[in-house]
Amino acid sequence: MTRHAGRVAVALCALLLLVTAPPARGGTRGGPGSFDRYRYEDAAGARDYKVAVPRNYDGSPRALLVELHGCSSNPDEEARWSRLNHVARARGMLVVYPEQDPASNGNKCWNWFHPDHQTRDGGEPAIIAGITREVMKRWNIDPRAVYIGGISAGGAMSAVMAATYPDLYAAAMVYAGCEYKGTTCTAGYGAVPPETAGELAHREMGHRARVVPLIVIQGDRDALVPFPNAEQVVQQFLAADDWADNGKNDSSIPREPATTTQGATPGGGHAYEIDTYRDGQGCTVVSRWLIHGMGHAWSAGESSGSPRDQLLTDPAGPKVTGPILDFLLQYRMPTNGRTCVAAARR
């Protein structure tokens, strides 16, 4: 080997080590404790996204939440208001925040209401699923512990993602969102009856159909997405689950809650109630939180003190971020079958 060739070989080895070596300390790009921006692009389009990696990430398999922001928002606001980075860190999971492109929607809303963005392998669902898979490849993500969630327009798109990619997301969260194919529900209610929306969701699932556990959060003073939409989302998922568990709409999933629990926020904050819906085997398929006196805001969200933050967070509400993650983390993607699979029963 010539002296020049030897220098080239040493340089190549050093470059390989830089590419493959894990980050040496927290805060490096993509390493433990980071919250960095990335770019995804495929045939359906391109979007930026940010990923929060917990400080204790050591390369072992972790759970992942894909969190979708609301209209006119962004990953940084969503992370701050929800406190998801902090709460997810305590549970050792990663959070990815796809960001809507204003060129696709001038208000930066996800286009959940448009037919071009309600089916698999096309439009925004394909992009969000692509971002999910890219994160799963870049970090060591447990493929049975991937979840989808969002607030407002992001909540509505979360319902779309649960219908279009039930084989990718083990469970879902819809916060102040709308039912699948329910058209626009802002300042009103979805136009499609929940039983019909549930059947449409089941059809979209196709041969991938399965029960998708769901947690719903809603304030009963929400003027932007009125609270009856939460009931429509609940009933749509129950109907889709009824179809999915055995291919029949035969009331195998009851439409009435098995239990209702009353709660109160310490310090005189908002009261709330939690409805729990279970399948015939006792597995919880839907949990609905209705927060009394709360508008269109993150309950107990973190505020910078700006007028926008004060408008879109409510300090009088209960802390919901922890219960949301705890609900989702109960579930794993089934290795076979279509029914509800809780982690303890995997």
In oligomeric terms, what are we looking at? single chain
What is the chain-wise order of helices and strands? HEEEHHEHEHEHEHEEEEHEH
CATH architecture descriptor text: 3-Layer(aba) Sandwich
What low-confidence regions span 5 or more consecutive residues with pLDDT below 50? 1-26
**Main sheet characteristics:** 10 strands, mixed
What is the end-to-end distance?
56 Å
Strand order of the largest sheet: 1-2-4-3-5-6-7-10-9-8
Tell the overall outline.
globular
> How much strand content do the residues show?
15-25%
In CATH terms, the superfamily is: Alpha/Beta hydrolase fold, catalytic domain
**Number of β-strand runs:** 12
From the alpha carbons, calculate the radius of gyration and give it in angstroms. 21 Å
Helix content: 25-40%
Provide the CATH topology: Rossmann fold
Mean pLDDT: 91
Q: What is the structural class?
A: alpha/beta
Question: Can you count the helices?
Answer: 9
Query: So what's the CATH class?
Result: Alpha Beta
Q: How many domains, in number, for the residues? A: 1
